[in-house]
Amino acid sequence: MELKQISQTFMENGKIDTVLKDISLHVEKGEFVSIIGPSGCGKSTLFHIIGGLVAPSHGEVWIDGKEVTGQKGLISYMPQTHALFPWRTIEENVILAQEVAGIPAKQSIAQAREWLAKVGLAGYEKAYPHVLSGGMQQRAAFLRALLSPQEFMCLDEPFAALDALTRMDMQRWLLSIWEQNKRSVLFVTHSIEEALFLSDRIYLLSDKPTTIIQEIEVPFPRPRREEVLSEPMFQTLKQKIYATMKRVHV
Ligand SMILES: Nc1ncnc2c1ncn2[C@@H]1O[C@H](COP(=O)(O)OP(=O)(O)OP(=O)(O)O)[C@@H](O)[C@H]1O
Ligand SMILES: [Mg+2]
């Protein structure tokens, strides 16, 4: 997936509001890339552009070597709010993208049940979302994105609403699933630690009008384990990113 010189302006109370300004970035096949940026800088807007829900004011979206600006249905997307449908059971929610893609329910339900068990949701296949805790709902929403047929996934702050311990569990869990699947991922987070723990590369974004201020290669080998969090290099990188983000946020 590649973004070429994406800019986005909105009309706000009769004034032009430039949100994204000349954003070019790429995610290679099987790569895990994170975006860190201040609140309101346009991260979700960028995902809406990639997903074809919003037409950019300028620039192009490329997937698999083709220009696909404005085309829907090409990516798997986990929005910032989990957006499980309350009237569908957990397994019906998980197979939604496959249903839209015309994959027979019998096949996708069997696969969904297998995965629900792997993520600790066995027994909840036929439950409705309101019965599940926040963390369980996030896992179900994540499975829906993971099992959708598109190879490229956009995850918008999937763990933001979780408490610190559940969040760490989910990060470990996501890492192990991703290391088995190697899907291409673009991941939005406010947590520097989370981005360093999970990613191959990180883009740091400025405040509006938003540009890319830095691109960071994360040097830790895979498979990664939690121990990496206490390595001196991890702490150094974390502090560097923190200092950069603090500078742009004043
Ligand atoms: N359809 C729209 N019309 C007008 N302004 C919009 C529209 N969509 C987004 N914006 C503006 O674009 C800016 C970026 O919003 P966006 O939701 O993309 O930020 P974000 O980086 O995802 O923030 P957060 O970290 O809080 O989720 C905001 O100022 C928002 O008000
Ligand atoms: Mg957002």
From TrEMBL:
It comes from Paenibacillus psychroresistens. This is ABC transporter ATP-binding protein. Residues 1-232 form the ABC transporter domain. Keywords: ATP-binding, Nucleotide-binding, Transport. GO terms for molecular function: ATP binding; ATP hydrolysis activity. InterPro entries: AAA+_ATPase, ABC_transporter-like_ATP-bd, ABC_transporter-like_CS, ABC_transporter_ATP-bind, P-loop_NTPase.
